[in-house]
Design brief:
6 helices; alpha+beta; five-stranded mixed beta sheet; two-stranded antiparallel ribbon
Length: 220
Amino acid sequence: MYFQKVLKGIKDLTHAEVSVMVNADGIHCNWWRREGTISPGEISDQLTDSNMLTHLNQYDDPLPAAHPHYSPTEKLTYGDITPFISTTAGAVQRFSLAGLNICFPAFMTALQFATANFTTTGYIFYAYLLTLGKKAIPLMQFSEEVRELHIYRHFLPYHREGEIVAKIVIPSPQIERAEEYDGPSALAALCTGKFPSPVLTLRNGSYAAPDKYSNIREIL
């Protein structure tokens, strides 16, 4: 088992919402946020291979009319009702023709998601997840190492996002802090070769740091 450090970018949150997520509620999946309350039995029904694949490959696709959550008025997508939570730990892709390995840093992926490609304000959450080193989709407490090609061997078009998939909730004690970024300002800094600075930082006073445990994996 590994304690995998991850980043999660979320756009258009208020300071109050982020404070509650960091210090109390954690980060909930979209399905839980829509339903309000969920039961253990419902969780088991949602943690399936097919739901994982639609989360990874059809997140923004509209639900078909035959889907149980389909609504002609809301026009929901698979992402709106997913029990999974995407995070990033960075990725490496091999460019064989050039004999190069190309690194895609977790921070840049999270920043793009947090700011909708540098157009708005958003937050990057610094957290950690528990991973097993193998597939364990029915087990809510363990996250899926989707970026690991030896585990997820089928082609995934968004591999460069370095995805580690959490399930149902990222608990508050596993969230160290959240940093707010202004998209246009962050882009301006990057264009001048500078590392973007957060507008503000919210720290979790109850953060359960994993450093006293073994097998910690850092982000790329």
